[in-house]
Amino acid sequence: MLDCITGYHHVTSIASDPRRNNAFFCDVLGLRRVKKTVNFDNPSVYHLYYGDSLGTPGSVITYFPFPNRARGRRGIGEVAKVTFSVPHGSLAFWEKRLSEKGVSGISQSPVFSESQLLFEGPDGEAIALCESARGVNSPANHQINSDKAITGLHSVQLCVGGESTIETVLDHLGYEVLSRQSGLTRFRHKIQTEAGYVDVERSGSLAKSVESAGSVHHIAFSVQTEADQERARKSLLREGYKVTEVKDRTYFKAIYFRTEDGILIEIATNPPGFSVDETDITLGNALKLPPQHEHLRNELEKNLVAL
Questions:
Q1: What are the pLDDT digits (tens) for 193-224?
Q2: pTM greater than the 0.90 cutoff
Q3: CATH number for the domain harbouring residue 80
Q4: Boundaries of domain holding 170
Q5: What is the pLDDT of residues 113-160, one digit of tens each?
Q6: Is 1 part of a structural domain of the chain?
Q7: Count of structural domains, the chain
Q8: CA distances from 126 to 21, 44, 53, 119, 299 (A)
Q9: Pairing mode of beta strands 264-269, 60-65
């Protein structure tokens, strides 16, 4: 078992319209855009990061907005839902706010005895808010009062097939079964009890998911240091997983591997963080490019839509 995982680092998804995506997460959910950069592997596309005021690991959701991308198909082998924590007693505020903003698919129900508000993101993605003390950070900005504002990532829900060995992966990452309810199994970290939950839904009838707009591209767990990351990489390789080399994402170092179900998992370092190339005050304002793409700046600034 890995003893170095400290919780979630971020969740990354795919969108179809950068302006609509930016407006939803900043203006509707009240998160702060903490980085405006590009997909390092496809620099013609934005990579937008939203989180708390500093982009604290565990508060961040990110998007690759591919203009006019068709919606993905929900199914087996994907992250089916992303849930954020909000303070107790705030769901009535959020239900009213989301309704007034024209958000689709709003419904409220308890999940593992926690009040949860489910709704759709701009590309039909399943997002939820959960009343919970779980959270890693202060509110993102001042447009939503601190007694109502999102406080961080609460959980992700994985959809897998009936014969999935996902428990083996989660056990190696340090997660154990906490509870079972109505076809869901909730996992909690064995050591870091504030690390966030992983919920698993098993299905024997759904088709394989198709990744596109509205799909989660990957989930990232955090480690404190590059040494921790290297230990995790070697451990995963010993277990037979195909793990990438370390990739420098400027704001963190990353390694990736896939589960047997096809779910892409990243392990990311907490440092150096999003303030490495901007001040805390100006985070997310300017287009920031990694050194290998700086020569493309004029072309990218001409072709990427203004945000």
A1: 778 999 999 998 889 999 999 999 999 999 99
A2: yes
A3: 3.10.180.10
A4: 7-303
A5: 899 999 999 999 999 999 987 666 666 666 798 889 999 999 999 999
A6: no
A7: 1
A8: 14, 27, 24, 6, 34
A9: unpaired
